[in-house]
Amino acid sequence: MTVRDALRAATATLSAMSESARLDAELLMAHVLGTEREAMLLEHLDAAVPEAFDALVARRAAHEPLAYIVGHREFWSLDFAVGPGVLIPRPESETLIEAAIKARVDNPPAAILDLGTGSGALLLAALSEWPDARGLGIDRSEAALGYARKNAERLGFADRASFRAGNWGDGETGRYDLVLCNPPYVASDAELSPDIANFEPEAALFAADAGLAAYRAIVPQLKGLLAEGGVACLELGAGQSVAVSRLCAEQGLETAISRDLAGHDRCLIIHN
């Protein structure tokens, strides 16, 4: 069987569970061939199929996330290593980086804090925008911290990024010009697709109190974490902008909303 034939068969197999079956098949094939998707399509369609390909298709057909199978996911044009135990970076989270850039356009941050850093995606994306900045990522998960440190090293940010275990900003005494956070915000009883619910870490997805529990812990810490004139960018779940804005108002914090490409309220911009 050629690569062309195998892609056709894999697309048919994956079409029952994936809206991007052909793309999934092509990315899996490129991964097993050790090349880029574009090069695979241009140069390898008539080549023999590697034996390992069928096993990868079977894993994807069982709803394992593509990013876990191939071991990486692009975010902010950077390639992040990911795997079991760490949340997969998503395009909508880039809204936080876009909002931060606009908020700090005339005053680049020198110190950046990423609460619940996961793979380090938000922190390292921010450091890629501000080459003179340094940053700290905090997470409760040692598995996630392992990926964050690996990503900082492989992307060339190890000298400007540090990571430590912790629960949000508890015990943190530094003051930061920019605080980033993508907390768990899915209601505990919500139903998610098997790709997410059966594989990604629950602690990075679900929160009590209709998804607001993490915000109730984080927002009161912000005044103590933000430097004078500092800005925090928090990711929001669906329908949460009003409730989280109210939490900020109770702490004397000013807020604004930034929407993602789909038009959803995605980032709460918070000024000290």
- The low-pLDDT segments are none
Spell out the CATH superfamily of the largest domain. Vaccinia Virus protein VP39
Total domain units = 2
Strand order of the largest sheet: 5-4-3-6-9-11-10
With helices defined by DSSP (H or I, 4 residues minimum), what is the helix count?
13
Mean pLDDT: 96
CATH topology of the largest domain: Rossmann fold
Please identify the structural class as seen in this structure.
Answer: alpha/beta
CATH classification class of the largest domain: Alpha Beta
Order of helices and strands: HHHHHEEHEHEHEEEHEHHHEHEE
Strand content: 15-25%
Share of helix, binned: 25-40%
Second CATH tier, the architecture of the largest domain? 3-Layer(aba) Sandwich
The termini sit apart by 62 Å
The biggest beta sheet is recorded as: 7 strands, mixed
Characterize the overall form: elongated
Radius of gyration: 20 Å
The total beta strand count reads 11
